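Listing 4. Sequential folding, example run.
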Amino acid sequence: MTDPISIATRRFREAMASFPSGVTIVTTADEPGQWRGFTATSFCSLSMEPPLILVCLADSAECHPAFTSGEHWLVHVITDEHTELATRFATRGADKSAHPRFALDEHGLPVLDAAAVTLECSTYDIHPAGDHTILLGRVDDARLGEGTPTLYYQRVFQPLELVRSR
C-alpha cells in the first residue's frame, strides 16, 4: 500500500518546482571565522519599517549552527554567472570556503562579487518551522549590482528575461 503522506509530499515538491523563484546565496562566518553559506529560494521581503527580510534554512544544513548563533549575515541575489556557485552552496559537504568570487566585509563575512543585489543583515529573530528555521534579518544596508537576477524553475536555473512595456 502506498503511503499517502509520501504522495502528498511528492506532489507538494512538484507544485513548488512549478513556482519560479529568485535564487540567493546566504553567507556568514562561524565563531572561528570559517565561511558558511547556503543557497535559498525561500527568501522574501517582510517589512519596510523596520526593513526586514526572511530566508528559510534547513535544520539539517551543516551551516545551521553558524546562522542561528551569528549576529550578521549577507543575502546575495545571484545572476546567471553564479549558478555553479549556487549549486555548490546547495550541496551538502561541498567546499564553500575561500572562493575567488568572495571578498571579506568589515564583519569578516564573505561578500559575493557581481551579485544583482547584496543585503547586509543582522539577525532580528529566529523561528522554527517544520524541518526548517526561518531567519528574520534586519537589513542594515543594500547594494544594487549591474546584473540581472536568475530564476529557479522546474529544478533548473533560468535567465530572467525582462519584459518591458512601452
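-- end of first protein; second protein begins --
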Amino acid sequence: MALEHAEVLRAAHLARIDLSEHDASHYLDDIGRILAMVDQLQSLDTDGVAPLAHPLDATQRLRADEVTETDQRDSYQSVAPQVENGLYLVPRVVE
C-alpha cells in the first residue's frame, strides 16, 4: 500500500499532532516500511495456527493466599468522620 505525503499530514491533523513538513517526510518513510512489513506478514499462511494470549507458554507463579497482617479496622476507623457497624458512612451522591 503506497502512502502519500498528504495522507501523513491528514492523519497527523486528525490525531491533533503538530507535524512539520520535514517530519512528515520522515514519518512517511517509517510508515511505508511498517506497511510493507504488514503486507509481508499477511502473505503468510496461518491456517491451523491457534491464537495466543502470550508468546511464551508459561504460567504465572502466585503467592499463597495467607493473612499477613492483623486486623486494624478499629484504628483506621477511629479517624473517620462517621462510622456505623464497621462501615464508613458517606454522603449520598446518587439520587
